[in-house]
């Protein structure tokens, strides 16, 4: 594992590097979706790694760098100015090498290797396919690595370069005798019959610059504004093109793929500001809705997918992600999203009617296997144990510390169902079916009543984590009930108690709401789901508090999350952070393996900005594109 990862991305093409953006070790590489094309891409000057003077990420796809000869000391002998860009179709690396001192030519080399390994194998998937038979050949103006997968898919990494260089089977070599030499390398990750298509970094930069002006959001505090600006850029960077539009990836670098739950939560958070993204999520998931029963993928009619992959392992049937439907919450979330979108886009209720009706039917049938009126999941032996957002195997257990079993009903999923049933009522009303609308409103009201009776925990003034397969409550203090406020299922008279418990000493860290209360069995502040803080989970609670008119509490939570991002050098929220108590003049403790950025965390500043207080109109900003052109020229 890389201790520090850097990522440059556009569409489904992305570089994962070490802290110096090098592809040289471990998981680093040039990836296209789920396949690593290049496993080595490393520059050396006279046999040594250049010394970095500056590395600046101008945009999520653009690295600007200055470096020098190794051991530069007080006087630089050779300087290298570099712009590395990843557009949707091309990696372009432009170097200007300037010789200041010394006699004789300098030798600049670029080491290259390709392995075409499935991303799951890179990350340690057991029983992989082993080393690929990669062919390498020199072609006019460049070099080509190629591989034909077990299912016949032909992939190529085409490397083009200017001026010419010699290739010794491991590296390209340039002998630099001029005072200044400009070198350009382009890499194209191609599949099937695709041909290389040059990208346009300047046009992409202009698109990024236009994002902020289009949203016209301005916060009074400039540090909060930096967080919001980064959020907007990350949401754009995370997305990749599909037949339905630009779909938000779950996170970088390992989750550049469609995820049901993640994308639906992102869409619900940004639907008012980025409606096209939310509509794309709804349409994409509708197009891949379950239609049959499949025990290996857990597909069921009407069910919404959990995760979809397209790498070689999945295409050959070694993983169930084609797609994989191991989620109990994505299906009601889908109906909730379509219903929310129908307020501003009423045609979507008609367009996706077969899909949201099928999803509702799943909620009442396969989604409720014991027919007690609650949506449940059963741990998938050999697959996902907990088919909810806390999907680690040890996250859901009884007060005695015993792992759950049987048909398990988790608290927030019932809230999603409640929101889905009210959304159905809204859509049926749009479709002039008053009888159906009234029936779903009645079903929602009944669910709220039965939910409170089964899940309320009076001793804590809170709700339990869920119901085990034996219908006994999971009396464990967790963040989920606070998250559930977002859905509206909690009766208004109990919402203040839920908020107060969530903001009490056991759950509130000062940076966010702990996934598991301090002092509970399995509590560990540096765990994945048992004491850490997940910003999206905390943000859902803030939105829920605001929904119930608990505005001071909502503002407190929003402020804390913006402070987490402000404490980060890149102004980003990460996937999760450690649950240690907040200390004065000390930043939050990071979680070592967190994704950065993460899709639903990128959505948070946009979703919570209105809770921080007064905003002002933003003046459009302009970049000096002429300067950028000169640097690429």
Automatic annotation (TrEMBL):
Give the protein's recorded name. Glycogen debranching N-terminal domain-containing protein
Q: Please list the residue ranges annotated as the Putative glycogen debranching enzyme N-terminal domain.
A: 8-176
What organism does the record attribute this protein to?
Answer: Deinococcus oregonensis
The residue ranges of the Mannosylglycerate hydrolase MGH1-like glycoside hydrolase domain are 336-576
Top-rank taxon of the source lineage equals: Bacteria
A Pfam family per the record: MGH1-like_GH
